[in-house]
């Protein structure tokens, strides 16, 4: 997504990571509390708060400062390739990216 008034120009890009997008989705679209978000994402409440805070700050930076907003997917970050099973179309996101699992699916 890019500001219309600057289309085609070189500009700064703000990148949202899969776990940040998931935190925004759960908090702002599904109206979940942090405890439920943490359970669904498989991380601690503190991690959920960090991801949510980071995502909101990045979105505000892009909107206020006219920066392009890039949303990374599991495929573009390599997440989901660790063998951690997820539902079709879902991303293991943070659990893979933070290498809590080995590529063979076993714990570190």
Mind explaining what this structure looks like?
With 108 residues, the chain is mainly alpha-helical. The protein has one domain (12-97): Arc Repressor Mutant, subunit A, CATH 1.10.10. Helices cover 45% and strands 7% of the residues. The protein has helices at 18-29, 34-41, 45-65, 74-77, 94-97; strands spanning 13-16, 68-71. It has a two-stranded parallel ribbon with strand order 1-2. Helix 1 crosses helix 3 (45-65) and helix 2 (34-41) packs across helix 3 (45-65).
How is this fold's topology laid out?
Blueprint: E1 13-16, H1 18-29, H2 34-41, H3 45-65, E2 68-71, H4 74-77, H5 94-97
Parallel strand pairs: 1-2
Helix pairs in contact: 1-3, 2-3
**Low-confidence segments:** 76-83, 98-108
Number of helices: 5
> Strand share of the residues?
5-15%
- Largest sheet, order of strands side by side? 1-2
Q: Sheet with the most strands?
A: 2 strands, parallel
How far apart lie the N and C ends?
Answer: 37 Å
Question: What share of residues is helical?
Answer: 40-55%
Morphology call: elongated
CATH architecture: Orthogonal Bundle
Classification by helices and strands: mainly alpha
Mind telling me the C-alpha Rg?
Answer: 15 Å
CATH topological fold name: Arc Repressor Mutant, subunit A
CATH class annotation: Mainly Alpha
Q: Total domains, how many?
A: 1
The pLDDT mean sits at 76
Total strands: 2
The helix-strand sequence is EHHHEHH
